[in-house]
Design goal:
The chain is an alpha+beta fold. The chain is built from eleven helices and 39 strands. The longest helix has 20 residues, at about 5-25.
Length: about 675
């Protein structure tokens, strides 16, 4: 299932399935799968020539849901935007209709009927228009008696051959086949029947299997469809994106031309994440060779959104004809290295930082699979610049950021300036009016020297920045660094929170070409908790990420808007204080090496009934110091506490228990810190 209210609807379907199971025992018969026509043709390979690279396009659901604005004019307008904004030239091809395009009832002949208000000229007219733009049209239905929307639009279970032929007659090029109201019929049988029905039409239709990864489709769907969802629905939050990313990454061996792991559509531009997070989202989907289906409202998208979606160099990673999904090289401490083999022998490397603070992430050319060489070219796919490197691939990556580079054993490496790495030696956690000392480095990673190198640290107005050692050097040789010590002082009275800084550098290549670079930084003005025992629900946090909706203070997580939670309740016990979150979640507090213990009663909130499976972790700086096993709604609260003596920060983490983030409402009840 997809959609904004995914979990609510899916829970209703599960409940309906429980009811239909009882009906089956009383003599009720599940809808039969459609049988093929007696004159069914000999069918070609289901994957022949289709989706040899991951499909790219647009799906309307996140931008319109089932509102009246989802109509013929809107769909045609998206096709126009594809052309006008260069998305077609970038490779985006499919304009896909999601749920709500049909009337709730079939006609007297059992045929699907397009909604005459939304689509007065029918679906074929829309397909014809899209085709005149050199694009293709996709459509949606479900492998059940009804689709996922609560209005109850007709599903295709028992109508596969008739519906597939209608789609083909309309000129449809892509089918998204959902999983709602499936009446307990075996998933492989349902999806295989629609495969055969599509093939029987004789029209090439890309087939997207959307059964949410519940039956491990990567193990059986390569000869059924061209792509399969590996997870539940994505939402426009960092926690949701991260959870889905982690579930999709281990499936790399199943992906290839005509058979793609689908971690769900893109959220880029929908407003729930920062541009840095959206670039990470787009980078990681590309390196995973995921389908790139835009889920934002292109009619009102920002220039930054179009810049991200239209980055040809990142799109080329996704669309590389070799068809490899990136593999995890390392993932220590929330700093990920993911490498993707490319058709020309190069490697695309993502340095991905899942944590809430800047982090150095490093690997080498040989570690990502390249042969030994004197030097390599390194192309930054977001900066659009090429450098040379002696073999190190490293960067200080901003919180929730990704550095995406393409590395090759290229004999022309000496034509390019050396790569340099900018770094800061510690997290910028500073008390107002108190000077903090830090050291920055500019390190030459190349085979050639960086000459006339200089650095500058910029801070918000009112802050004091002083260099305590040289900020320039006539030459920085390969492997050497320019180190500069600084004092940084926020003004007295600066309110707690995050502030943007930047470390800027300039140097010249041996040929004299000037290179400018910058490392964005975030400094946090912090306040040490008061002496004694404090409720974490009442203290400011450094950062908070959440699977659905914001983390809540002293209420449960209501899943949508801030303040929509309820009294924290676990196992029938109501708590007045604490934190309400939704997996995957991380809430970080500043403790300033002044606190000793953190504790809470933890569990799944009662507001989701029998649903939800989570696990809790307490981290002191970068060390996990306490954790639970998997907890379910059927369990009472479990007390979790940890010694955090000497830690500058404490992070409260909730994971999804290994089964996705459906209904994972988690409570840190009576969460306290003792200082």
């Amino acid at each position: 299932m997809r959609h904004l209210h995914t979990r609510t609807t899916r829970h209703r379907v599960v409940g309906a399935f429980a009811a239909t199971t009882l009906l089956f025992t009383a003599g009720f018969t599940a809808p039969a799968l459609a049988t093929p026509p007696e004159t069914a043709p000999t069918l070609p390979s289901p994957t022949a020539g289709l989706a040899l690279t991951p499909p790219m396009g647009f799906n309307n659901w996140n931008s319109t849901h089932c509102r009246a604005e989802f109509n013929e004019a809107m769909v045609k307008g998206i096709a126009d935007i594809f052309v006008a904004k260069g998305l077609k030239d970038a490779g985006y091809e499919y304009v896909n209709l999601d749920d709500c395009w049909a009337l709730p009832q079939r006609d007297a002949d059992g045929k699907l009927v397009p909604d005459p208000v939304r689509f007065p000229n029918g679906i074929k007219a829309v397909a014809d228009y899209v085709h005149t733009k050199g694009l293709k049209l996709g459509i949606y239905t479900s492998a059940g008696t009804k689709t996922c929307n609560s209005a109850g639009f007709p599903g295709a279970l028992g109508h596969e051959y008739s519906d597939a032929q209608q789609f083909a007659d309309w000129g449809v090029d892509y089918l998204k086949y959902d999983n709602c109201n499936n009446q307990g019929v075996d998933a492989k049988s349902r999806y295989t029947t629609m495969r055969d029905a599509l093939l029987a039409t004789g029209r090439p239709i890309v087939y997207s299997i959307c059964e949410w990864g519940e039956n491990n489709p990567w193990e059986w769907a390569a000869d059924v469809g061209q792509l399969w969802r590996t997870t539940g629905d994505i939402s426009d939050t960092w926690g949701s994106m991260l959870s889905i990313l982690k579930r999709n990454l281990p499936l790399d061996r199943y992906a290839g031309p005509g058979r793609w792991n689908d971690p769900d559509m893109l959220e880029v531009g929908n407003g729930g994440m920062t541009d840095t997070e959206y670039r990470s989202h787009f980078s990681m989907w590309a390196i995973m060779a995921a389908p790139l289906l835009i889920g934002s409202d292109l009619r009102s998208a920002s220039d930054e959104t179009f810049d991200i979606l239209g980055n040809h160099e990142v799109v080329a990673v996704d669309q590389d004809p070799l068809g490899r999904q990136g593999t995890v090289v390392s993932s220590e401490g929330g700093g990920w290295v993911v490498a993707k083999e490319m058709a020309d022998g190069s490697r695309t490397v993502a340095l991905f930082n899942e944590t809430g603070s800047a982090r150095r992430i490093a690997t080498t050319a040989t570690a990502v699979g390249l042969p030994a060489a004197d030097a390599y070219t390194l192309r930054d796919l977001w900066q659009h610049r090429t450098y040379n490197t002696a073999g190190t691939v490293s960067a200080t990556v901003p919180a929730h950021g990704t550095v995406l580079v393409r590395v090759a054993a290229d004999r022309r490496w000496s034509q390019y300036p050396p790569a340099v790495e900018l770094a800061v030696d510690n997290a910028l956690l500073i008390e107002a009016g108190t000077p903090a000392t830090l050291t920055t480095t500019l390190t030459d990673l190349g085979r050639t020297p960086a000459t006339r190198a200089s650095v500058a640290l910029t801070a918000p107005e009112g802050w004091t920045v002083r260099a305590k050692s040289p900020t320039n050097a006539p030459v920085v040789r390969p492997g050497e660094s320019l180190r500069t010590r600084w004092t940084l002082t926020p003004p007295q009275g600066a309110p707690p929170g995050s502030y943007d800084l930047a470390l800027r550098a300039s140097y010249r290549s041996p040929a004299g070409a000037r290179v400018d670079s910058a490392l964005p930084l975030t400094a946090s003005v912090v306040v040490t908790p008061p002496a004694g025992i404090s409720s974490l629900g009442d203290l400011p946090w450094l950062s908070a990420t959440n699977g659905y909706g914001p983390a809540e203070r002293n209420t449960s997580n209501g899943e949508s808007a801030a303040g929509d939670g309820h009294p924290i309740t676990v196992g029938g016990v109501v708590y007045a204080k604490g934190l309400g979150v939704h997996a995957a979640s991380a809430v970080e507090f500043y403790t300033g090496a002044a606190c000793e213990t953190v504790g809470a009663d933890v569990g799944v909130d009662d507001e989701k009934g029998a649903n939800g499976t989570v696990a809790f972790e307490i981290w002191a700086d970068d060390t996990k110091v306490a954790s639970t096993g998997v907890l379910t709604n059927a369990m009472p609260a479990e007390h979790l506490s940890a010694d955090v003596t000497g830690a500058r920060t404490v992070r409260l983490v909730v994971t999804d228990g290994g089964d996705g983030i459906d209904s994972d409402h988690a409570d840190w009840a009576d969460a306290v810190v003792s200082c």
